[in-house]
Write a structure and sequence with these properties.
Length: 109
């Protein structure tokens, strides 16, 4: 499992850096305002699962499962700390040509 660095572009803007998704999954520090941007350069869709840290009132773990289409991308989040905790765990159905970036949204003052 690899750590995904959280990037904070700010008001002046910044280029976002993507990293290859790890076969064993990834994690990132969650401040409740971070989103994930996942790009799929593969010829088949791939599934990204965001592990919810807290069980619901019925004792179930409702993970977030998102299909990223072939040649497409998805933006997921933010992830409330009360539900996902920190760090947040991310797993994949496959990692061929799958890249990810964690981007802190924040609020302009």
């Amino acid at each position: 499992m690899a750590d995904i660095p959280v990037q904070a572009p700010g008001l002046t803007g910044a280029a976002v850096t993507y990293q290859a998704c790890a076969a064993g999954g990834d994690s990132f520090e969650n401040d409740g305002e971070t989103i994930l941007h996942i790009k799929n350069g593969h010829t088949a869709s791939q599934t990204v699962t965001i592990v919810r840290a807290r069980l619901c009132d019925m004792g179930q773990q409702h993970n977030v499962v998102v299909s990223v289409p072939a040649g497409g991308d998805r933006i997921i989040g933010p992830f409330p700390r009360s539900e996902f905790g920190s760090p947040v765990q991310v797993t994949y159905s496959g990692v061929t040509s799958l890249t990810i970036a964690a981007i802190r949204g924040g609020r302009a003052g």
